[in-house]
Write a structure and sequence with these properties.
heterodimer; A: about 120 residues; mainly alpha; 4 helices; about 0% strand; B: about 180 residues; alpha+beta; 2 domains; 4-stranded mixed β-sheet; 6 helices; elongated
């Protein structure tokens, strides 16, 4: 059980760190959003998973009721995180494009042609 | 009455989910939590029935759709998401990007299914939803790496963005 928790934690932290490095390295709003939404969602899901595994194992082991409560709460948080992260990214990307922050570098921008015509 | 019950049941279920493990009634709940949950659910459902119009977003009632949705989340979607993250990891380390925004025909008919597709696109390989054409349900996708062939292609279909046929699966549980 402890090995599973550790592996999940390491994967989660690794992807969260990659997300942060991505934010620092990428050139514009849109590419940075790629790094921050995907990597941090995946990383946080794995951190949550490690909490769920730990709490569920404690509950199964000594019937520790607060641990069951913890596992159920984190499960809800995990799903909410996946949905709100994606929706938040849409909102930021759309707001950036509408306020005139165009992707650069960029080889093609269908949305901008749409607005111009 | 229908609206009252359709709010009451999910709210009470959520309250019980979040307070499981608080006591001994039915093995898991404290009596005080159950009473408080019931009172709050009735108040919430009553206020909702009073003030929220019937034209809002409807959730699928058919339980089969919810099961399909759950299978979609833990199966193909999770795999695509893992791929997406290895892809982002690769680009973060090497810095090889060639981004652009393309218009994609989503093939979705309802607002709910377009939302599900847009969210799936954002969390899967190299793509991010920037905007939506509300009349045709077309999506504007920011792709982090366009090849030369892709940069010149005019007709995009949402099927092209995934390894698995995720749009067909989304249509099955949300339309």
């Amino acid at each position: 059980m402890e090995a599973v928790v550790l592996i999940c934690l390491v994967i989660g932290l690794l992807f969260n760190s990659l997300g942060i490095i991505g934010i620092l390295r990428f050139p514009d709003v849109y590419t940075r959003l790629h790094a921050s939404t995907k990597a941090t969602t995946f990383g946080s899901i794995f951190v949550s998973l490690s909490v769920i595994v730990y709490a569920a194992a404690r509950f199964a082991g000594d019937g520790d009721r607060p641990m069951l409560s913890l596992a159920l709460h984190v499960l809800v948080a995990m799903f909410v995180l996946a949905f709100t992260n994606a929706a938040g990214a849409h909102a930021i990307a759309r707001a950036a494009h509408r306020s005139g922050t165009l992707p650069s570098p960029s080889v093609r921008d269908d949305l901008n042609e749409e607005a111009g015509s | 009455m229908k609206r009252f019950v359709s709010t009451l049941v999910p709210v009470m279920a959520l309250y019980m989910w979040l307070t499981a493990g608080s006591g001994d009634v039915f093995g898991l709940w404290a009596a005080s939590e159950l009473v408080l949950g019931a009172v709050l659910s009735v108040i919430t459902a009553w206020l909702t029935a009073l003030h929220v119009g019937s034209a809002g977003v409807t959730l699928p009632v058919n339980p089969l759709r919810w099961i399909l949705f759950a299978l979609y989340l833990i199966g193909p979607f999770l795999l695509e998401m893992a791929k997406a993250n290895l892809d982002v990891a690769y680009r973060v380390i090497t810095g090889r990007i060639n981004p652009g925004i393309v218009r994609v025909n989503s093939g979705m008919k309802t607002a709910g299914s377009t939302t599900a597709l847009a969210n799936s696109i954002t969390l899967t390989p190299g793509t991010l939803t920037v905007g939506v054409d509300e009349e045709t349900n077309d999506l504007f996708i920011h792709k982090i790496n366009l090849t030369e062939e892709e940069a010149a292609r005019s007709a995009w279909d949402s099927r092209d963005l995934f390894g698995f046929n995720l749009p067909a699966m989304i249509r099955r549980f949300s339309e």
